[in-house]
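Researcher: Structure prediction, please.
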Amino acid sequence: MSSSSSTSSRQACRRTVYGVPSRCWCGQTLDTWVSETKENPYRRFYRCKIALQNKAENHLFKWIDEALLEEIRIVDAKHQDLLCDLKAVTEKTKKEVDSQRDLIVCRGEEMHNEFKEKMVQMTRSIEEATSKMKEEIDAKLNTDINAKLNSSGPMNKIAALVAICGAVYYMYWKHL
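Model: Predicted structure follows.
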């Protein structure tokens, strides 16, 4: 019975440390030892030097193969957690990118419509300004032409008479 109780107390102690231990509860670093018992021949384990010297004290004991299996399970669980986190981040990022893309497309359409409106307004303004400038130029030209015609009235009449005479003379000589 005493051997079973010591085994159960050892197992209880082993379950408190999960994975590969780095130190004993007493603070000592752990060494690797090889079992020489019939139940576990040549099986390796972790133990501190104090526990080997004083077997009555309760120090850390852990089989290396169990510790490594636990460590692999820890790493695998962390790997699975990271995969889940990566999947969640990927989905969140995809949703944010889609949202930003929709926002950009919407804003692009708004800017396109604003640009069209501004172009229509500019075209109207240019047409109005062109029309006003044309009216002003025509008015100025008419004023200048009328002023010149009125100021040089007899000269213009003589020029017109010479032009008419030249045309009649040309017609006469052309038909002969």
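Model: The CA atoms of residues 123 and 129 lie 10 Å apart.
Researcher: Thanks, that helps.
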